[in-house]
From TrEMBL:
Family statement: Belongs to the TolB family.
Annotated source species: Thermotoga petrophila
Highest taxon of the lineage: Bacteria
Stated name of the protein: WD40 domain protein beta Propeller
A Pfam family per the record: PD40
InterPro entries found in the cross-reference section: 6-blade_b-propeller_TolB-like, WD40
PANTHER family: PROTEIN TOLB, PROTEIN TOLB HOMOLOG
Length: 389
């Protein structure tokens, strides 16, 4: 009979207020005990300070983890059970997966229960890590109900996931045979716009935020060249980038009539359009320099931010612009007051590259992707603060 090892975490701070508590019962076979210890250590290392691990029966989350090793197949299997939910992870030392990623997969299940719960309750610090899975998580967008992002955590393919901001659920929205990028929720929160590969090439699609979404996917772009970087102008109008034989251009399309307007701009390339205060904000490349500009309704182009450091990934809320830029050797998320011209950093305490910022619907939060060294990106959140000096 195989020996079993049991870890029951019970870490109760002397003076602390916990927003969320975890009751974790963790078991392993003898051969997997060292791996179990590594999973335990990773959970303790990354657990948000707003959470406490306890043995109380009234914990916010009570879950069981079992880790086994099959010598015949040289396979470790870790399995979490939480109510009716089961999460299973596998690792073969001779396979493609890194050991550190297997440990992180196992640790990510309780960590994300905590982080998503804190996010749904708005009980998190000014700088907050939202996702922990070792697979890629990037390209966020908000609505009052959801946060959407693209992730490779489901079978290694890029799929869309929703975090329900009301009940803390993580909801996968797979589209089989396709990879999805740059999801955007419509202003009325009824539709999801995205870049996908359902027809082989990169195209622009939209679908309803409903259980039968996969049956109602609509193709927006056309032509044999790639289309990418979609965004909403209003509930019936979208903008995206369309490649052609030598460069690319912006397309604005009415989803009711499917009529479109094309904008060939005086740049080598254009990227990531977004709705601005007056027109369409975009990144323009000219003479090896990336800057952020706004295309106004009369066809004129104004400069919003064009420094020697290059700027990417713009988003606008009221009079504030956010973007990614490398101004000190690290790509960080910056904000600019478009009235005063003041620029400040939102991620100065994160020592890794950060990209793809997105304002929440009320402008109080900014979500973005952090690319930690040696790891795939994760979603982080900062509270948007305007300096008072």
């Amino acid at each position: 009979m195989k020996k079993m090892f049991l870890f029951i975490f019970a870490i109760i701070p002397l003076v602390s207020f916990s927003v969320v508590t975890l009751n974790l019962s963790m078991f392993s076979t003898e051969e997997a005990s060292s791996v179990l210890a590594d999973v335990q250590e990773k959970i303790l290392e990354l657990l948000p300070k707003e959470a406490t691990i306890t043995n109380s029966s009234t914990a916010t989350f009570s879950m069981t983890f079992f880790l086994s090793y099959n010598a015949t197949d040289n396979l470790y299997v870790g399995e979490w059970k939480h109510g009716n939910e089961v999460a299973r992870y596998e690792y073969n030392p001779r396979g493609y997966k890194y050991y550190r990623d297997f440990v992180m997969e196992c640790a990510s299940f309780p960590l994300e229960k905590v982080s998503v719960y804190l996010f749904s309750k708005n009980e998190f610090p000014d700088v907050f890590r939202l996702t922990y899975h070792p697979a890629l998580d990037e390209y966020c967008d908000f609505s009052s109900r959801y946060l959407v992002f693209s992730s490779e955590r489901l079978s290694g393919n890029r799929n869309l996931f929703l975090i329900d901001r009301q009940n803390g659920e993580l909801l996968p929205m797979p589209i089989y045979g396709s990879s999805e990028y740059f999801p955007r929720i419509s202003p009325d929160e009824r539709y999801l716009l995205f870049q996908g590969s359902l027809h082989g090439n990169w195209n622009i699609y939209y679908m309803p935020l409903s259980p039968d979404y996969s049956k109602k996917i609509q193709l927006i772009s056309r032509g044999r060249y790639a289309s990418y970087n979609p965004n909403w102008i209003d509930n019936n109008t979208v903008v995206y980038v369309q490649e052609d034989a030598t460069s690319n251009h912006l397309v604005v399309k009415d989803l009711t009539t499917m009529k479109e307007k094309t904008y060939y701009l005086p740049f080598d390339w254009v990227f990531t359009p977004a709705k601005g205060n007056q027109g369409i904000v975009f990144v323009g490349l000219k003479e090896s320099n990336f800057g952020i500009y706004e295309l106004l309704p009369d066809g004129t182009i104004t400069v919003l931010e064009d420094s020697p450091y290059n700027e990417f990934d713009p988003d606008v809320f009221e009079n504030y612009l956010i973007f990614s830029s490398n101004r000190d050797g690290v790509f960080r998320i910056y904000a600019k007051d478009l009235v005063s011209g003041k620029v400040w950093c939102l991620t100065e305490n994160i020592p890794y590259d950060a990209f793809y910022p997105a304002f929440s619907e009320d402008g109080k939060l900014v979500a973005f992707s952090v690319y930690s060294k040696g790891s795939e990106p994760d979603i982080w959140i900062v509270r948007f603060r305007i300096p008072q000096d």
